[in-house]
C-alpha cells in the first residue's frame, strides 16, 4: 500500500501539510519496548531528538539527510537525520532537535515549521530518540560542521514513502538474529534508526 500523500510540485501545499499534521502526534510518545540487549526500560535510555526535515521545493518535496563522518564514536559514516542527545539546558525535544540542526548543518529554525512528532524510537545502542517533523522553507544556506557531517543531501519524499523501496534485513548481534530496515537511495544506504523513523511516518500515513 502506497502513501496517499503525494508531495509533488502540483500538490496543494496547504492540504498536504494539513494531512501530515493530522497523522502526526501532537506530543511525544515514549517507545513501549526497549529492543536493546540489556533489557533496560525506555526511561533508562539516553534521551535524544532528531529533526525529520521535509523541504518544500518547486520540483516537489524532499527529505534532508546527513552522512556522518567516519571518525565519530557513535554511528560513524551512517546516514542520519540532524539531531543528537538532550543537553541539560534543552527545554523540550523540539529545542534539542532545532539546536542540534543548527549546530550540525547550520539550518536556522526560522526556516522550520514544526508540525508534530513520531513515536519515540528506541535503539539497540541505548538511545531513546524523539523524531520532530518539520517543514523547511527555502531559500536557506547550510554550513555543515566538518567534524560531524561528511555531506548533506536530499531524497524525494515520495521515494522514501514508497514501500517498494523498503527492505528488511537480518543480522546476528550477540549470537541472536536482529531485524532492521533499509531504504537504499542511489549510493546511499539508509538503515538503522533513520530507516525505522522513515517507516514510522509511512505507517502513520497509510494507517
TrEMBL record:
Alphabetized InterPro entries for the sequence: CoAse (IPR045121), NUDIX_hydrolase-like_dom_sf (IPR015797), NUDIX_hydrolase_dom (IPR000086)
Record Pfam families: NUDIX
Lineage: superkingdom: Bacteria
Cofactor: Mg(2+); Mn(2+)
Domain Nudix hydrolase: 44-177
CDD domains associated with the record: NUDIX_CoAse_Nudt7 (cd03426)
Record keyword NAD present: no
Keywords carried by this UniProt record: Hydrolase, Magnesium, Manganese, Metal-binding
One function term, GO molecular function aspect: metal ion binding
NCBIfam families, sorted: PRK10707.1
Record-given protein name: 8-oxo-dGTP pyrophosphatase MutT, NUDIX family
Source species: Propionivibrio dicarboxylicus
Amino acid at each position: 500500500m502506497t502513501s496517499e500523500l503525494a508531495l509533488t510540485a502540483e500538490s496543494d501545499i496547504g492540504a498536504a501539510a494539513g494531512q501530515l499534521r493530522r497523522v502526526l502526534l501532537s506530543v511525544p510518545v515514549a517507545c513501549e519496548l526497549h529492543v536493546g540487549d540489556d533489557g533496560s526500560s525506555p526511561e533508562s535510555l539516553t534521551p535524544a531528538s532528531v529533526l525529520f526535515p521535509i523541504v518544500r521545493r518547486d520540483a516537489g518535496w524532499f527529505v534532508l539527510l546527513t552522512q556522518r563522518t567516519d571518525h565519530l564514536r557513535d554511528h560513524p559514516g551512517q546516514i542520519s537525520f540532524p539531531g543528537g542527545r538532550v543537553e541539560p539546558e534543552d527545554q523540550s525535544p523540539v529545542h534539542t532537535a532545532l539546536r542540534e540542526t543548527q549546530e550540525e548543518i547550520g539550518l536556522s529554525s526560522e526556516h522550520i515549521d514544526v508540525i508534530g512528532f513520531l513515536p519515540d524510537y528506541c535503539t539497540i545502542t541505548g538511545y531513546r530518540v524523539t523524531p520532530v517533523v518539520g517543514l523547511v522553507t527555502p531559500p536557506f544556506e547550510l554550513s555543515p560542521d566538518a567534524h560531524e557531517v561528511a555531506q548533506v543531501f536530499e531524497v524525494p519524499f515520495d521515494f522514501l514513502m514508497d514501500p517498494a523501496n523498503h527492505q528488511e534485513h537480518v543480522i546476528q548481534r550477540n549470537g541472536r538474529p536482529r531485524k532492521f530496515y533499509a531504504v537504499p537511495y542511489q549510493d546511499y544506504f539508509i538503515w538503522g534508526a533513520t530507516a525505522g523513523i522513515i517507516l514510522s511516518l509511512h505507517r502513520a500515513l497509510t494507517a
